[in-house]
Amino acid sequence: MIRSAYLVVAGLFILTPLVVVGVVAFTSASFVSFPTPGFSLRWITKVLADPAFMRPLANSVLLGLAAALSAALLAVPAALALARGGFRGAAEIESFLLSPLSLPALILSIALLFYLSRLGMGAGFIGLLVGHTVIVLPYMLRTVLAVARGADPALEEAAFVLGADPWRSFLHVTLPILRPGIVAGALFSFLVSFDEVAVALLLSTVSTMTLPVAILNHVANNYDPAIAAISLIKIVLVVAVLVALELGFGLDRLMLSRRRP
Amino acid sequence: MTRGRLEVRGLRKRYGAQTVVDGVDLDVAAGSFVALLGPSGCGKTTLLRCIAGLVAADAGAIRIDDRDMVGLPPWRRSLGMVFQSYALFPHMSVAANVGFGLRMQGVSRGDAAERIARALQMVRMEGFDGRRPAQLSGGQQQRVALARALVTAPPVLLLDEPLSALDAKLRLAMRSELRELQRGLGITTLFVTHDQDEAMAVADQVAVMDHGRIVQIAGPETVYRRPATPFVAEFIGRINRLDGLADGLAMVRPEHVRLCPPGDSLDGDMGVEGRIVDIVFAGDRLEIHVEAGDRRILCMRSATAGPPPAIGSAVRAAWSRSDMLTYRT
Amino acid sequence: MRRSTVALLLAPAILFLLFGFVAPIAVGLGESLRAGLGLYGKIFGDAYYLEVIVSTLALSAVVTLLSLLIGYPYALILARARGWKKAALLLLLVAPLLVNVVVRSFGWMVVFGRSGLINAVLAVLGLPALDMLNSWIAIVVALVHVLMPFMVLSIAATLETLDPALEEAAATLGARPIRSFLHVIAPLSLHGAVTGSILVFALCMGSFVTVMMMGGNSTMVLPLLIYQQLSVAGDQAFAVALGMVLLATVLAVFWLQGRLVRRLRP
Question: Which of B293, B324, C91, C196 has the greatest number of C-beta atoms within 10 Å?
Fold first, then answer.
């Protein structure tokens, strides 16, 4: 059937670069080639012991967690206001908060670099965190907002009548109900930050370099299978997080919600 | 329980240009069951929510046992409320749901556990402590919602169309359970519904609302037999409009209309000549539709009171003047 | 909810975006205009820069079209699938999305490179090796690979909302599957296809990592030019000006989407 043939071709197209990277990671040669002359773990062990890769990996993880946390602190109250506030202009504010989604990150990146150097700050962790939080905020807002909108508003009212003031109602009723959205948003935000290149490229310093930037430098300077090895490690990490997302929240609920322009 | 007297004076609520509650006065005696009845948009739910504190009224007073409620947020009013969707907390067990109000009041674990058990027993939901709301049927959720509202022994119980999500048979069963429960506890209850059969079946007093005002508040029989306004007459039960047959507006209930042969003397009763155009068999009664000129008169009588007349036969629809309801226009 | 509560809840997010997003761009715009329109005159007056802008637009258009052609069938299959098959298709589509663009481009480098996959296959077939890395083909393939999922998700989302009864109705009215598709499904999914196309086009306009890795220095697009001006030439002001031009183009594309979508609203 045409459909199966198409799916096979599409599947091959989608998976080829990833499979290739996976294979090259285990090459025994000292240069990048496909197919590989032999198999060995030398590149993987080399990379795992190399601070030039491990430091950026740690930075990326840290940055991802920090960006996800910042986005959560900003997005959860905003989502509550948008879902329950019942005020005019809610749609416009929502579009505004989601707008970083539409912008090429490169533009934000240069603008931030310029802006921060004007403020006397320049590149560094703060700049990275701000840039990544801006990029990641719409993702967090979308998932939390979806959950907030789906929840029965009478739940909070019931809590009020039962004697809970707004803070206790938030703590005991609202927050637990929002939790799946927050967790999913956080995982998503982490992944987006983990992968981000444009902002990281311009705003990284030697000590705050993120993993994608480290890989990019390596590609430019020494084109060897170490790139494949670290890439494989990164892929394994991402797949693990993806599996957690699917088991915890359900990928199709996340992915197939209508995008706003 | 002698507490739970509710007084509402001159309550007003506007949303933009629309006045949803238009100067409502309401006195509910302690322990009585009052139904707020009316078509959608009449303001009954808004009135209830004002009393609960979920909506801030623009003007007027609300007093429970002489305690002024206006200005108090809902979490300080200590009332009990059951929502149309039940609003059971999905992430908590049945026991935790029922005990939530007690927890907010700082009641100790041990005392709370005892009171929760008694509340669940009262609504016949013992043994369901550990279940989650998602595992319960509609009727079961409704009972848990009731237990949750009652466990803190509030002076007033507010019910916002609590039976509307249930299917017909269950509704009837829950109606009587609710009534029994209320009588047993003697708790002042305010019950919002758009279903007049329901209101008449459960309440001591029915308050009929129209466009933000209470147009009549009285026992079910009074509201039915002596409706204060044409609106109430037409909203409750079925009625025949008798335009042009008397001074002002005249109406008569279908069960007061009898059919007799066209030539019969009326003995001071009123009547119109016409033909039977339709007969509807409704189980325990017959609904006979008579066309009299450009009028349609509905006559209702028991299905067992003799053989049904023939469709198309000429008849006279008659009723006594004392059964007629008249209103000055 | 009281107005004051709403304001309090929204303030952190809005203020953050104002200071971290809007302000930098506004400052950048202001800076680029400091010497009057001189910088912009330099951009639009020089044939080289104009050529770069045009190549970027052309590349984006080609990638968008290919993504649409290749991605539409996938979206159809995905929208119709159920259960584990749907999850599997989704995972297949989305997993590469969440693998870094650098890694994916590297993968394509290995595929297209001199000692890579394609040349290995050609060698087996007895054909001469090709030097494809610095070609437009390699860049287009890599970009389509990176951006196609966005197209698919956009179209699938629209298709999902379509009532399956529509196709059944068409069938009872005598339409064969192909006609049913052409006359019923395709027009209704146009909304998703347009949204997806605009999204892919905008993302492509801003993409430079893939071009940089696949094309070396022989191919130039606007985002890459910006990056070069910044890192190599060190000319921040000029880079910002170029960035504003890029921004203006992307905004123009979104404005176009707004107009198109409004006309397409059923």
Answer: C196
- DSSP string covering A117-166, please? HHTT--SSHHHHHHHHHHHHHHHHHHHHHHHHHHS-THHHHHHHHTT--H
Contact A212 C102 (CB under 8 A): yes
Closest CA to A255 of C157, C144, C189, C195: C157
pLDDT of residue A181 exceeding 90, the answer is no
CA distance B230 to B215: 10
Between CA B309 and CA C113 the distance in angstroms is 97
Reported ipTM exceeds the 0.85 cut: yes
Residues 19-38 of A with CB under 8 A from B: none
Inter-chain residue contact B83 with A162, CB threshold 8 Å:
no
Note whether A197 contacts C209, CB cutoff 8 Å.
Answer: yes
Angle, helices A175-195/A51-84, rounded to nearest 10 degrees: 140
Residue A253 binned pLDDT confidence (cut-offs 50, 70, 90): low
Give the residue from B148, B84, B139 showing the smallest Cα distance to B120. B148
Of A158, A168, A172, Cβ closest to residue B87: A158
Instruction: Report the residue of A84, A87, A160, A161 to disrupt the B interface, i.e. the one with the largest count of B CBs within 10 Å.
Output: A161
Tens of pLDDT, residue by residue over A83-98, are: 988 788 888 899 899 9
For residue C130, pLDDT beyond 80: no
**pLDDT band at residue A250 using 50, 70 and 90 as cut-offs:** low
Burial class (CB in 10 A: 0-12, 13-18, 19+), A120: exposed
Nearest CA in chain A to C199: A102
Asked whether residue A187 carries a pLDDT value surpassing 90, the answer given is no
Across the strands, what pairs with B80? B157
A88 has a chain B CB within 8 A of its CB:
no
Contact A172 B75 (CB under 8 A): no
At residue B274, the 3 state secondary structure works out as strand
Partners of residue B209 on adjacent β-strands: B214
The verdict on A54 touching B (C-beta cutoff 8 Å) is: no
Per the structure block, which two tokens stand in for B98?
A: 């029922």
Q: Containing H/E element for B80?
A: strand B80-82
CB atoms within 10 A of CB B168: 7
A154 touches chain B (CB under 8 A): yes
Check whether B106 has a pLDDT greater than 90. yes
Count CA atoms within 13 Å of residue C266 on its CB side.
Answer: 9
Q: Which two tokens stand for residue C32?
A: 């680029």
Among candidate residues B127, A95, A42, A22, the one with its CA nearest the CA of residue C110 = A22
Chains that touch C (3 or more CB pairs under 8 A): A
More confident site: C256 or A256: C256
Q: Please classify residue B58 by burial: count the beta carbons closer than 10 Å to its beta carbon, then call 0-12 exposed, 13-18 middle and 19+ buried.
A: middle
H-type alpha helices, chain A: 2-24, 42-49, 51-84, 90-98, 105-118, 125-150, 154-161, 166-169, 175-195, 198-203, 211-221, 226-248, 251-255
Size of interface A-B (CB pairs under 8 A): 59
Mind telling me how many Å the CA of B166 is from chain A's nearest CA?
18
Chains touching chain A through at least 3 C-beta pairs below 8 angstroms are B, C
Please, are residues B166 and B138 in contact by the beta-carbon 8 Å criterion?
yes
Q: Is the pLDDT of residue C132 over 80?
A: no
CB within 8 Å: A162 and B85: no
Nearest CA to CA, how far is A114 from chain B (Å)? Answer: 48
